[in-house]
Structure formats: structure tokens, C-alpha cells
TrEMBL record:
<keyword id="KW-0456">Lyase</keyword>
<keyword id="KW-0479">Metal-binding</keyword>
<protein>
    <recommendedName>
        <fullName>o-succinylbenzoate synthase</fullName>
        <ecNumber>4.2.1.113</ecNumber>
    </recommendedName>
</protein>
<feature type="active site" description="Proton donor">
    <location>
        <position position="109"/>
    </location>
</feature>
<dbReference type="GO" id="GO:0000287">
    <property type="term" value="F:magnesium ion binding"/>
</dbReference>
<comment type="similarity">
    <text>Belongs to the mandelate racemase/muconate lactonizing enzyme family. MenC type 1 subfamily.</text>
</comment>
<dbReference type="Pfam" id="PF13378">
    <property type="entry name" value="MR_MLE_C"/>
</dbReference>
<feature type="binding site">
    <location>
        <position position="139"/>
    </location>
    <ligand>
        <name>Mg(2+)</name>
    </ligand>
</feature>
<feature type="binding site">
    <location>
        <position position="193"/>
    </location>
    <ligand>
        <name>Mg(2+)</name>
    </ligand>
</feature>
<keyword id="KW-0474">Menaquinone biosynthesis</keyword>
<keyword id="KW-0460">Magnesium</keyword>
<dbReference type="InterPro" id="IPR013342">
    <property type="entry name" value="Mandelate_racemase_C"/>
</dbReference>
<comment type="function">
    <text>Converts 2-succinyl-6-hydroxy-2,4-cyclohexadiene-1-carboxylate (SHCHC) to 2-succinylbenzoate (OSB).</text>
</comment>
<feature type="active site" description="Proton acceptor">
    <location>
        <position position="217"/>
    </location>
</feature>
<dbReference type="InterPro" id="IPR010196">
    <property type="entry name" value="OSB_synthase_MenC1"/>
</dbReference>
<feature type="binding site">
    <location>
        <position position="165"/>
    </location>
    <ligand>
        <name>Mg(2+)</name>
    </ligand>
</feature>
<comment type="pathway">
    <text>Quinol/quinone metabolism; 1,4-dihydroxy-2-naphthoate biosynthesis; 1,4-dihydroxy-2-naphthoate from chorismate: step 4/7.</text>
</comment>
Length: 329
């Protein structure tokens, strides 16, 4: 493994961009990200602004892996992906889906703050109406408590759900939702996302038997190799998903999906379609429901065009300095 790059090596090529989103996602309308280039290619460092430095350190480890080490050998060359439908009004569903082209799976955001269960039912039903045969999964981002999750999934399962991602915040809660849904006669598979990427121990949820599958993201888990190791130890099916990154981050997600021994589900890696622009001339977006595994090379002109304002650039470079110091310590 090459030695960990110095701060100066990272700063030498660091670019900070701010990319407009087509649809608001996770409350975000502009996605800021820092990119740098190393001997193995481009790396992306884009922890969400509210994340602390300790959490951001794993994101930097992942970006350095991409740029200085490269990826393990792929076992497959195309990765099936889902369309991602943010918490939009049901009437906007066709327009969002259209951007993804043909897909066999759709992930729908639910339990958005300020919305009602009726909004979720309408949105998921609109997806089902548009795509009668697609696999539909929902992602609540821990937005429900246990009784709300049981009620909501009881209702939503009427349209046919592939699985529900992180319905409630805690591992014990996930286990409880699973139990109650079985009791209620509407078993829905439970996927853990935040309970993998935000726990100190990403394997706790698997050991607790609280989920049927896990969602794995390269950046929050600290790189492709670490994520592969987590999946192997968890012993559960895994879905690779994005961190709302540019094609450079998606490239790392594709590398993980391509290297997993089994890939039973479509991956949440189609999110470049939610952006109004990307930083490469060959964006890693789905074509006929899948993305072909390939390199993502940032384009100088696009990096320039979407360069973040000076004050935001300084904010990101300061963060890079602090987080780099943490990793060196
Ligand atoms: O999985 C997908 O279809 C898209 C990626 C996605 O949903 C997410 C990306 C980035 C941040 C998260 O809030 C969110 C998720 O919770 O899975
Ligand atoms: Mg999720």
C-alpha cells in the first residue's frame, strides 16, 4: 500500500465545487464537494457540512484510497441501479422517474419531516402506477418511531415493497419493527443504513439480527476495502448506495458493487441524475437500468465552471487540514 499522502500532496490538486441539484434531496439544493487527484486517479471528499471531523475522517480515508491506491479487481462490469425518488409531491414522480430512463427498481424517500403518511402513500402509489413491475423500496432515514413504522409499512406494503430502509433510528427499534410486522402479517424486509454507517461498530446491527440486509456506502465506511470487509463479516446481503457524490464518488461505489461476491439487489448509485450537472464529460449515470463500470475523470473546465465561492473553498480546505491531521495522528 502506498504511504498516506501528505497534506501538501492533497492540497496541490484540491478543487472545491458546488453543484446545483435538480430536485431537493436531504434538504440540499447545492451539493458541495472537494476533489483531488493522486497517482491512481480522482478522489472525492464530501462529508455533509454538519458532520464532525471524526466522522469525516472515514470519508477522507475513502477518497485517499481512490486516488492513491485504486480499487480491488472487479467481478462484474455493469451494476444494476435503482432510480431514487426524493420526498417530492406525488405529481412530480413521473418527471423524476423520467430522468433515470428504464429501471427495474426504485427507491422512494418517505417519512420526510413536515409531511404526512398520506404524502408517502401518494408518492409510493404514483411510482407503482408509473412502473407496475418495478421493485419498490422505501427509505425513511430513521424518520419514524416503532408504532409509526409498523403502521406506515403496513399501509405501504399494499403496493408491494422489496424492503424498507432504516424505518427507525435504533438497532433495537429495527428488530422490534421486524417482529411486529411479522406478527401483523405484513412482513417487509428491513435494511439497515444509518445503523451501519453511523455506528462505531458497523457490525452491531448484523450481530443483533435486527436487519435482513445492509446498505453500504464507500465514503462513510472508509473505503472500498473496508466496506468489503464489513459485508463479509456481516454475512447479510448488501446494497451499495451513494453518498450523493459526483461521478468520482460513484466510481468508488461501482468498484465496491463490482467486487462484492454477491450482488442480489439493484444499487443506489444512480444519484448523479439528481444533479443538474457533474464534473466529468462522461457522467456515471444509468443506461437501461445499469451503470457500466468505468473511470471517472474530472474535467478542468467543469471544475472551473462549478468552483465554489472563495469563502466556501476556504471552509473545505480548513476541514481537509483538520481531518488530515486526525488521520495522521
Ligand atoms: O440509495 C439511493 O437510491 C440514493 C442514495 C441515498 O438515498 C442517500 C444518499 C446520501 C445520503 C443519504 O441520506 C441517502 C440514504 O439515506 O440512503
Ligand atoms: Mg438510506
Amino acid at each position: 500500500m502506498p504511504p498516506f499522502p501528505t497534506l501538501d500532496e492533497l492540497l496541490a490538486t484540491a478543487k472545491v465545487v458546488s453543484l446545483p441539484m435538480r430536485v431537493k434531496f436531504r434538504g440540499i439544493t447545492e451539493r458541495e464537494t472537494l476533489l483531488f487527484r493522486g497517482p491512481a486517479g480522482w478522489g472525492e471528499f464530501c462529508p455533509f457540512p454538519e458532520y464532525g471531523d471524526a466522522e469525516a475522517a472515514r470519508w477522507l480515508a475513502a477518497a485517499v484510497e481512490a486516488a492513491w491506491q485504486g480499487f480491488p479487481p472487479p467481478l462484474r462490469d455493469t451494476i444494476p441501479v435503482n432510480a431514487t425518488v426524493p420526498a417530492v409531491p406525488a405529481a412530480r414522480v413521473p418527471e423524476v422517474l423520467e430522468r433515470f430512463g428504464r429501471v427495474d427498481a426504485v427507491k422512494v424517500k418517505v417519512a420526510e419531516r413536515g409531511q404526512e403518511l398520506a404524502d408517502d402513500v401518494a408518492r409510493v402509489t404514483a411510482v407503482r402506477d408509473a412502473l407496475p413491475d418495478a421493485a419498490i423500496r422505501v427509505d425513511a432515514n430513521a424518520g419514524w418511531d416503532v408504532p409509526q413504522a409498523v403502521e406506515a409499512l403496513g399501509r405501504l406494503s399494499a403496493v408491494g415493497l422489496e424492503y424498507a430502509e432504516q424505518p427507525v433510528p435504533q438497532i433495537e427499534g429495527l428488530a422490534e419493527v421486524r417482529r411486529r410486522l411479522v406478527q401483523q402479517g405484513t412482513p417487509v424486509l428491513i435494511a439497515a443504513d444509518e445503523s451501519v454507517r453511523k455506528e462505531d461498530d458497523p457490525l452491531k446491527v448484523a450481530r443483533a439480527g435486527a436487519a435482513d440486509l445492509i446498505v453500504v456506502k464507500v465514503a462513510p465506511l472508509g473505503g472500498v476495502r473496508r466496506a468489503l470487509d464489513i459485508v463479509a463479516q456481516a454475512g447479510l446481503p448488501a446494497v451499495v448506495s451513494s453518498a450523493l457524490d459526483t461521478s468520482v464518488g460513484i466510481r468508488a461505489g461501482l468498484a465496491l458493487a463490482a467486487a462484492l461476491p454477491e450482488l442480489p439487489y439493484a444499487c443506489g448509485l444512480g444519484t448523479v441524475r439528481l444533479f443538474a450537472s457533474d464534473i466529468t464529460q462522461d457522467p456515471l449515470v444509468p443506461d437501461d437500468g445499469a451503470i457500466r463500470v468505468r473511470e471517472a475523470v474530472a474535467d478542468e473546465g467543469l471544475l472551473e465552471r462549478y468552483a465554489a465561492p472563495a469563502e466556501r473553498r476556504e471552509w473545505w480546505l480548513d476541514r481537509l487540514r483538520r481531518v488530515h491531521a486526525l488521520l495522521e495522528a
